C-alpha cells in the first residue's frame, strides 16, 4: 500500500530525478565501512549538501543517462 500518491515517485529517485543517496543505520561502522562523519555532525545544511553530492555521484556511476540533456 502506498501512503501518498507521490510516494512511488521518490522510491528510487531523489530530488531532480537523481538516484537516491546512500542510507546509513546503526552500527556506526559495519564490515570496515564507516558512516561519513558529516552525517553524524548534526549540521543539517552540510548533511543536505552531502546527500546531493552522493546522489550525483551514484547517478553518474550507475545511470549517467539521467544526467544527459534531452534533445
SSE sequence, one letter per element? EEHH
Helix proportion range: 25-40%
The helix-and-strand class reads: mainly alpha
How many helices? The count is 2
Instruction: Report the β-strand fraction as a percent range.
Output: 5-15%
Shape: extended
Tell me the total number of β-strands.
2
| Ends distance | 36 Å
Radius of gyration: 14 Å
Largest sheet, strands/sense/barrel: 2 strands, antiparallel
Descriptive terms for the model:
71 residues, mainly alpha, 2 strands, single chain
What's the gist of this structure?
The chain has about 70 residues and is mainly α.
Would you write up a description of this structure?
Strand 1 (29-30) and strand 2 form a beta hairpin. By secondary structure, this protein is mainly alpha-helical. The chain has helices at 37-40, 44-62, and strands spanning 29-30, 33-34. It has a two-stranded antiparallel ribbon with strand order 1-2. The longest helix is centred in the last third of the chain and has 19 residues, at 44-62.
SSE layout and pairings?
Elements: E1 29-30, E2 33-34, H1 37-40, H2 44-62
Antiparallel strand pairs: 1-2
Amino acid at each position: 500500500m502506498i501512503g501518498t500518491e507521490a510516494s512511488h515517485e521518490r522510491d528510487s529517485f531523489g530530488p531532480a530525478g537523481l538516484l537516491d543517496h546512500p542510507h546509513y543505520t546503526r552500527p556506526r561502522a559495519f564490515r570496515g565501512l564507516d558512516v561519513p562523519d558529516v552525517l553524524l555532525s548534526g549540521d543539517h545544511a552540510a548533511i543536505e549538501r552531502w546527500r546531493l553530492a552522493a546522489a550525483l555521484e551514484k547517478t553518474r556511476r550507475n545511470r549517467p543517462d539521467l544526467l544527459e540533456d534531452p534533445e
